[in-house]
Amino acid sequence: MTIKLxxxxxxxxxxxxxxxxxxxxxxxxxxxxxxxxxxxxxxTTLLKILSGLLKPTTGRxxxxxxxxxxxxxxxxxxxxxxxxxxxxxxxxxTVYENVAYGIRFQKMSAQDKRAKxxxxxxxxxxxxxxxxxxxxxxxxxxxxxxMARAWILTPSILLMDEPSxxxxxxxxxxxVTLAKDLLQKGSSIVVTSHQKNALTDLCRKQWWIKDxxxxxxxxxxxxxxxxxxxxxxxxxxx
Length: 238
Hints:
There is one protein chain. 31% of the residues lie in helices and 24% in strands. By secondary structure, the chain is an alpha/beta fold. It has a single domain (5-218), classed as Rossmann fold. The strands form 2 sheets. The chain has a 6-stranded mixed β-sheet, sandwiched between helices. α4 packs across α5 and α5 runs parallel beside α6 (169-184). The radius of gyration is 18 Å and the shape is globular.
């Protein structure tokens, strides 16, 4: 089951500076959103608020699967919403252990769990490195491990913070494959990026943090604006 997440009057203030104030927004079900904005406007902060890892200065985020723990401890994370950091947080262990972590309490046999983990690793091209320590992997391979760990949970909403930054083409292609699979299953994704790429090309609408608020536009409208700014830019809208 996929969910719809909504937020009202969300703002974030650092001392005397208001980073942003967003009257309302919604994600899902089955949304694909490209989140744009200059450095420092609050893209990462917004994703952390939506994922339940950061409490906004004002406002409220609502998700149907929020439980009493999330309400009492608002930085505990949000069920069915996964935040994928640009520099992934990985555990001191093997590649297999990192991917298996998210399903450790799921009710299935050890054999089925292993099959699920190996399938995830095969999708990102790392099944032969399952027993290697995470420290031997390159940056792109670590991002693939983090994506496999997110994919295996089949989150309703996946928030991807600059996922393709400094990645090689193979790693980007692997991330795109898993993102497409989640969208086909009805999940929603939000992707931040400083420029269009294969992941943002999956998106059907765009959010733009500008002038301390959030502007929501159809994909075609943003492409038109970009072409007006740069008439030689090529569009991938079709």
